[in-house]
Amino acid sequence: MQIFSYQPPMIPWLDIRYIDRDIIVINKPSGLLSNPGIAEYTHDCALTRLQERYKDCILVHRLDCATSGVMVFARNKKAESSLKTQFQNRQTKKTYIAEVDGHLSDANGVIELALAADKANPPKQMVSETGKPAITHYQVLSQANNKSLVELKPVTGRTHQLRVHMQAIGHTILGDDFYGDDNIINAAKRLQLHAQELSFTHPYSGKPMQFRCAHPFAITQK
């Protein structure tokens, strides 16, 4: 089992992109947990930082600690129920940007590989014929210096889905200290995975909502 060293970023403390009486949208930095773990040292997270300011804030979905990008939180029970239902029923649309090792042979494609918990190495996941179905669409945006910038659109929302899928096709996400070797880990200061866009229906007005926080990666897009 890997030892989890947690040193959450202090700047920015919170990057709030939208707020109304029902929802709060933030751009979560890499290195900050979405919600607290069991250990006391994991109390500092996106949820508790928001609750210091907005006591009614409720978690409805998560991003991996190392993943940055768009997250939405609810501010009341109706909003919580609506948003959780949308995530569970795959009514939300999510777009991630990743910087991966190597050049993909196909400019776009679909990865359909079932995933299950790697019980010998928690909290890792692995490809397994007996696992839960997992589907990811990908599109290559640019390639340079034996690395590629890729747009990823998960249909399902399995734990570590994008990280395991990219590793499984031979293009591990750079900076991935769970699924990468030393070369992958040392290739970037952080996991090069960012939740760039999130679309959902507003829980009160029913209006389509779309939020975008541009990825921070240096490789040039086409």
Automatic annotation (TrEMBL):
Domain Pseudouridine synthase RsuA/RluA-like stretches: 22-168
The protein's Enzyme Commission number: 5.4.99.-
Keyword set, alphabetical order: Isomerase, rRNA processing, tRNA processing
InterPro entries noted in UniProt: PsdUridine_synth_cat_dom_sf, PsdUridine_synth_RluA-like_CS, PsdUridine_synth_RluC/D, PsdUridine_synth_RsuA/RluA, RluA_PseudoU_synthase
Presence of keyword Lipid metabolism: no
Any GO MF annotation of the entry: RNA binding
Catalytic residue list: D64
Top class in the EC scheme: isomerase
Reactions the enzyme catalyzes: uridine(746) in 23S rRNA = pseudouridine(746) in 23S rRNA; uridine(32) in tRNA = pseudouridine(32) in tRNA; a uridine in RNA = a pseudouridine in RNA
Gene Ontology terms describing biological process: enzyme-directed rRNA pseudouridine synthesis; tRNA processing
Family: Belongs to the pseudouridine synthase RluA family.
Function: Responsible for synthesis of pseudouridine from uracil. Dual specificity enzyme that catalyzes the synthesis of pseudouridine from uracil-746 in 23S ribosomal RNA and from uracil-32 in the anticodon stem and loop of transfer RNAs.
Record PANTHER family: DUAL-SPECIFICITY RNA PSEUDOURIDINE SYNTHASE RLUA, MITOCHONDRIAL RNA PSEUDOURIDINE SYNTHASE
Name assigned to this protein: Pseudouridine synthase
